[in-house]
UniProtKB/TrEMBL annotation:
InterPro entries: SRR1-like, SRR1L. Pfam families: SRR1. This is SRR1-like domain-containing protein. It comes from Urochloa decumbens. Residues 103-266 form the SRR1-like domain. Belongs to the SRR1 family.
Amino acid sequence: MAAAAAVAIPTADADWTVVRRRGRRLGNAPSTACHPAAPPPLPVTPIPWAPSDSSLDPARVSRLVARAHAAISRVEASRFYRRLLLPDSPLRRRLLLEPVRLSLLGVGSFESCPAARLQLALAALLRRDLLPDAASADLFDPVLSAVECAAAAELGFSVPSLDDGCRRRVKEPTLFYMPHCEASLYDALLAANWDSPAQLRRVCVLGNSFRWYALQAEYDRSGPATKAAHVLAAGRFACEEPVGETGDLDDEDWFTRAFNETSWHFFEVDDDVDLAASIAGGRR
């Protein structure tokens, strides 16, 4: 069932302020296609990074860019994307204050995985249609090859030379698109911006449903979701907006794998909220 609409209100601190809405019933667990079943531990501090495959074939780059453009055209023409960007859609109403940066994190290998190419395509469209012309965009995944980095550059995305394990502290309103990432990655991002409500309000996350992680933690008290303390605590003030119902997705398998159980997360945190206490209380 669709939830009541919500409105974003720009503030003097250049952050995201959203009116809370009611939730919806969750479906099945999100697909983790194109992502490793057991990811390596996250680096605690940023470490130098280089592509996993350093060979650079210009022909492969050209083919990959062409395939990415085909994916962009496919997503743009989809019922899913048309609904996402309707003038009166919840997303349009919430993003009255435009983000000035987009970060695509954990996309996987978009040369070898069709779902990852569709996720990259959505990021490219969001950058084009939602961000100002001067906005910057980057993408990162430790599995990226040199060919994928070169293709990303041609598509307008920079690739950092450090692996920060998603512990990325923002200085401006930033849209993080993190398709089907592990709970630990969302947790690392939130932890890096957890020191004040004003800081956390600058973060917007498009990724797996935080509500689903909370249900998973209740069902399996020893599972990985129980260790994502910031994700679980954020449920108290995160406004979650599903990207679309199942009927909005194409029937083709890869399209569904790319976008199923994906939600927007805005963080409505009053200035007097003690974020440190919210984590300590959850652990007790």
